[in-house]
Amino acid sequence: MNARPDALHPLEATIRQRLQERRSASQPNAVLLMSHWVLGYPSLAANRPVIDQMVANGVDLMELQIPFSEPIADGPVIAHANQTALDNGFRVAAGLAFIEETVARHPIPFLIMTYYNILMAYGVENFIREAARLGVRGLIIPDLPPQEAGQVMAWCQKWGATANGLAWIHLLTPTSTDARLQTIGALAQGFCYCVARKGVTGTQTSFDASLHQFLDRCRRVTPVPLAVGFGVKNAEDVRRLTGMAEIAVVGSAAIEIYQAQGAEAVGRFFAGLRQPGGV
pTM for this one? Predict the structure, then answer.
């Protein structure tokens, strides 16, 4: 494992403080919940009560996705939400203004997830500077490989230093070689996003020995917290991550709940994820 830096990245420090608050003698390995929501789906006005419900019901950090027309890492549920938001007139400037408002209203860390074309269209350094100004704590950009991310990471460090830190979140995947995992792990800031399986978001993940082995490989290459996403759908999935990761990421399942039952049901869903007999 890599040696620890002299000081933790501010996002990692926040996560570790949150873990300390969540964990107890009866739940010494409790995981944090990170939700994923597509901005503008079905509208920015409709996003407010959903986000309020998620925060009120125990979500510890949240990634807000800026829609893109070709979301290659996303499965059909999130891809549909992206396209619906765009069809309904979503604009990046309005989304960033909404993020600023949301960060000011809630005490948890917020991250932006999107694709690199969005940053290029906005101006990459300008986007990073604006994200830091808004109070965003991290960026998740799945289609920019680590070997091409040196400049953006430098800009995150530069502009994050003027705010409360802005982490460039790296993804670890089961298909990566140990050498590649080691390279990515050495660059990690805040936390690593561990992709639970091959494929896109939303489809079923088997929480079996192969996932355990993958997370063991991830743990060996980096000291930062591990977040596991792609297919976390219910309280049993969250329970199975106990002791293996620090953060469970839930996206498609929450959107499906919203589609069927509305914002308050999303809140109940997240509250249930912490209960042994939950959703």
Answer: 0.93
